[in-house]
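ugh ok fine here u go
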Amino acid sequence: MSGRHDDRDRTIALAGVFQAAQLVTALARNGQCEQAALQSSIESLFQFTPDSVEAVYGGIAGLETGLSTLIMQLDQPARRDLEVARYAISLITHGDKLLKDRPRFEALGKDLEILEQKTRHFDLADYSRTAHLARLYQQYISPVQPQILVRGEPLYLQNPQIAEQIRSILLAGIRAAVLWRQCGGRRWQLIMRRRKTTEIAQDLLEP
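structure:
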């Protein structure tokens, strides 16, 4: 992937962050989420040498939920979900911490590559791969303060399979936050370039 990135690339990566935030919110509140978006976000963890930023998500179609959420959060105050915003900021914070901790960053990358190889050679079921990803989240992300506190219905949060999905998506969201930083993303852009980001997201959603 080229080292030169523009506002479009940054918008796509940021949509990945907000997609993860939206999926976590839905799972915590309702016990279910949009499956195509879930799959796209999880698969992004295994895109090690993508040709482009959008290729990380299998194309723009894999980010429709994230782009819609991004527009709503940045440009539609009446529909803004503060919980989604909180998760997004937490994901960016942990992405920054991961980038600064090179040994942890590289170790996580190697473990993801190993898991990808196991998936390919042993045809791991989705639930098994999700369980592996959840353990990687607990190993590499959970010990770092401040922890990401997920709020929702105890019935869903205490369900082991849902909890594993949430941890896996949080890991995918941190991957998106790292990608956003690598594309030149900065926190001030969330405010100062909000209109431009929203315009790009709307253009990307148009058929």
